[in-house]
């Protein structure tokens, strides 16, 4: 199948590069795989570095092509330091997290020093607190929105009853107004930035609008109540006048009746100037 010269090349005679070729089943000649070479290259790419943190030493096995940031992540568990709080020193120079170990000539057995980056820790803590505050504000605004929605439904019910001429209880209006005022006070104690500030402003506007509606309903309810009181007073006055006129009519009738009655006859009394004398 192959020429004599080609066969000699494959069998290792007459060719110095025969170790790089191999014969596959089917007669295909390909480059020879060397598992030993791959294993050696893999072992060379993995290094062990010694990291000093305080009085402790940590031996980390890592790829030589890894970045200092990846090394920091591996140091998080044994040291308890957050990645952003770490500062790696190699050859008396702080190394950036994005730079690579092999570029910085970190080799197997190299020694590094790990320090606490206090400035970075302070920034991280402040940012964490800021995020927590935003989340709390967002949650509070969401709860207030739900409460305002419930109160808005009650205000709409009263407004509909008033437009249809129904009776409105002033106590219901006062209770709703007090609840809305308490919500407004809660909103005054909330501070937000950006989108949260806009959400807070929207809820304040809604609450104020509902309070104004309740004020108008209260004025209308008081007007109706005052009108009813005036009407009742008039009716009471009319009834009182009729009663007085009735009493006056009865008194006149009684006087006429007395005039028409005949005088009573009493026994006659005889007056005399004769005095009876006694011995």
TrEMBL record:
Residues 134-161 form a coiled coil. GO terms for molecular function: adenyl-nucleotide exchange factor activity; protein-folding chaperone binding. Keywords: Chaperone, Coiled coil. Residues 140-218 form the BAG domain. Residues 236-265 are annotated as: Disordered. One of its GO terms (cellular component) is cytoplasm. This is BAG family molecular chaperone regulator 1.
